[in-house]
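[retry 2/3] MarR family transcriptional regulator: previous attempt timed out, resubmitting with same input.
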Amino acid sequence: MDEEVLAEEVRQSIGELVRAVRVVDTMPPGEAAVLGFLDRSGPLTTADLAHRRGVTHQSAAKSVKELIGGGLVRTEPHPSDGRKLLVHITDAGRARLRRERAQRTHALDAAIRDTFSPEEQERLRDCVALLSRLTARLTGR
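[retry 2/3] MarR family transcriptional regulator: success.
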């Protein structure tokens, strides 16, 4: 198989899988992404969040505003630049993010158990290691 064909098939398959798993989400993807970044990275500015998500500052600000309204994030003045605010995830935000992740995991787990034999599940487990190595290569981690 031509390497570019394999690369395209992997890209399409993973994209479709991600979209299929997100069907169970109960919050908008932008808001879930903001909570995920804050959970993994700690406090960030709205500009940082926009950059990491690859969206406009206005789009990130809209997500932050919605999350503030829901008590899922809070802001405080930036310690070295009074013109900026740092966005922090709250305990409620962490709990909501855990619920979203658990729903995705449960849906994916059920699909794996319903679709694959134990032998196929083992093969899939091996593929996860390969995909993790590929991700590390692409992200430089």
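[retry 2/3] MarR family transcriptional regulator: The radius of gyration is 18 Å.
[retry 2/3] clearing retry counter.
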